[in-house]
Design a protein that fits this description.
This protein has 314 residues and is of the alpha/beta class. 50% of the residues lie in helices and 18% in strands. It has 10 helices and 8 strands. An 8-stranded mixed β-sheet has the order 7-5-6-4-1-2-3-8, sandwiched between helices. Helix 1 packs across helix 3 and helix 8 runs antiparallel to helix 9 (262-293).
Length: 314
């Protein structure tokens, strides 16, 4: 059955890599003869001109954003734009720099043809980064697991069926982190192992600060889960501190086993832990209530706030 696939690619000051990617995609997707492919390139406020070579294989639209809003938000805007303006059966989301390999895009598409009801993520089986990145990436996955109770081992490289796309763009969470937001939607998904490719040109735009904010954005998607876990943790500390104080006071009052000076020192320490736990619980409650009172950005409704002109590349 012939299908229409839309490919979403964000770009920021990287025309060379983008054109290389489009050429490689054309080679890899040529085997899908019964399907048609369209490209939506989201220009995330580039300060350099984005020059795209025309293609006889793809229809290409270039959506300009009014300013740079960051990789994740550009993806959310692109998905909302596709939902409203482009007729397609599924959306393939990938980066322009070559780290999301075109051959893996073909693998994801092949899997989507067999299972068109679930989001399919590309899960990295191998990576090109150094030991430092891998170390902090393990810490990030551990922190995500501890704070949210969920596992995450994939990023933005994915294929989304149309039915899931129409639902996902109404979740504000994809505005901060696409992969985390997709998990938050509760939509059915699966993952396929892929390999991370090498950049086609230039250096990565992601520095340590950007990667840190990216990781925190994924964790923040589950703010209510984190808030509840922190609240339980702080209340547990308060309970343990009170129990320890009562035990120590009982030993001091009713027995002769107390070490001189030791009881008052430990009780003082427990009072400090109790006070800090109480303040942590208050901070957690007010932080969560504050986040709930803020206006949420719903991509499907508000994406036009950032969009500018749209070009058709012939």
């Amino acid at each position: 059955m012939a299908r229409n696939i839309s490919i979403l690619i964000p770009v920021f000051n990287d025309s060379e890599s983008l054109n290389t990617l489009l050429g490689e995609l054309e080679k890899q997707l040529a085997v899908f003869e019964q399907h048609t492919f369209s490209i939506l390139v989201v220009n995330d406020g580039s300060t350099e001109p984005i020059a795209i070579r025309p293609s006889s294989f793809f229809s290409i639209r270039l959506l300009h954003l009014q300013r740079n809003i960051g990789h994740q938000k550009a993806l959310a805007v692109g998905l909302a734009y596709i939902k409203e303006n482009i007729s397609c059966d599924a959306v393939l989301v990938m980066d322009s720099d070559g780290e999301d390999r075109p051959e893996d895009a073909a693998v994801l598409l092949q899997a989507a043809l067999k299972d068109n009801n679930r989001i399919i993520f590309a899960q990295r089986k191998s990576r090109q980064e150094g030991n430092r990145f891998r170390f902090f990436y393990r810490i990030y996955k551990l922190a995500f697991r501890v704070l949210t109770g969920k596992r995450i081992a994939f990023g933005n490289f994915m294929i989304i069926p149309r039915a899931q796309l129409d639902k996902a763009v109404f979740y504000s969470e994809i505005w901060n982190h696409l992969a985390g937001g997709m998990l938050k939607t509760g939509l059915s998904w699966t993952a396929m192992e892929t390999h991370r490719g090498k950049r086609y040109a230039g250096d990565s735009k992601m520095n340590f600060h950007s990667l840190l904010m990216h990781g925190l954005g994924a964790i923040a998607v589950f703010m209510e889960v984190i808030a509840s876990r922190l609240l339980v943790f702080s209340l547990t500390l308060i309970g343990l501190s009170l129990a320890a104080i009562l035990v120590l006071v009982g030993i001091k009052t009713f027995t002769d086993n107390a070490i001189p000076g030791w009881t008052s020192t430990v009780v003082s320490a427990m009072l400090i832990v109790l006070l800090q736990s109480f303040l942590l619980s208050l901070f957690t409650i007010f932080l969560y209530l504050s986040s709930q009172s803020q206006r949420k950005f719903i991509p499907a409704l508000h994406y036009r706030d950032y969009t500018g002109d749209t070009e058709t590349i012939c």
